[in-house]
Amino acid sequence: MSGYRKLGKTSDQRRAMLRQQVTDLLQYKRIETTVTRAKEIRPIAEKMITLGKKNTLASRRMALAYMTKEDTVTKVFKEIAPKYADRNGGYTRIYRLGPRRGDAAEMAVIELVEG
């Protein structure tokens, strides 16, 4: 099967979770989650930063339509995207942390690369 991972959730739950995690990643620059979620978050977060690099009204509205916090969108457009102006992709990094104590799910940290 190709495409995306279902992550054990219905489509609306999955979309809401990914929106929130992408928003948190861009707000705090680093979050801890499972490896599979981190792999799903990465392309979306990179797309949001690319929208920030375009810095048009249309791209800002597209980012606002996806992210859950308006101040995070402003942060992406004013602070984060200019840092990556000379970089073509690869704005995030995933570190594996090992299994989680409760259910042995493989954990990871996803963070923004210092640009």
Topology at a glance:
Elements lengths: L10 H18 L1 E5 H20 L2 H10 L3 H14 L8 E8 L6 E7 L3
Helix pairs in contact: 1-2, 1-4, 2-3, 2-4
Can you walk through the features of this model?
There is one protein chain. This protein has a single domain, classed as Ribosomal protein L17 (50s Ribosomal Protein L17, Chain: A, Alpha-Beta Complex). The protein contains four helices and three strands, in the order H-E-H-H-H-E-E. The mean pLDDT is 94. The N and C termini lie far apart (35 Å). Strands 1-3-2 form a three-stranded antiparallel beta sheet. It is of the alpha+beta class and 115 residues long. Helix 1 packs across helix 2. The longest helix is centred in the middle third of the chain and has 20 residues. Helix content is 54%, strand content 17%.
Q: What oligomeric assembly is this protein in?
A: single chain
**Annotation, overall tally of beta strands:** 3
In total, the number of domains comes to 1
Work out the helix count.
Answer: 4
Q: Write down the CATH class.
A: Alpha Beta
H/E element string? HEHHHEE
CATH architecture identity: Alpha-Beta Complex
**Tell me, what's the shape?**
globular
Low-confidence stretches: none
The third-level CATH topology is: 50s Ribosomal Protein L17, Chain: A
Gyration radius, rounded: 14 Å
Order the strands across the largest sheet as they lie in space: 1-3-2
- Mean of the pLDDT scores? 94
Q: What helical percentage do the residues reach?
A: 40-55%
Q: Kindly report how far apart the N and C termini lie.
A: 35 Å
Q: What percentage of the residues does DSSP assign to strands (E)?
A: 15-25%
Structural class: alpha+beta
The CATH superfamily label reads: Ribosomal protein L17
Main pleated-sheet profile: 3 strands, antiparallel
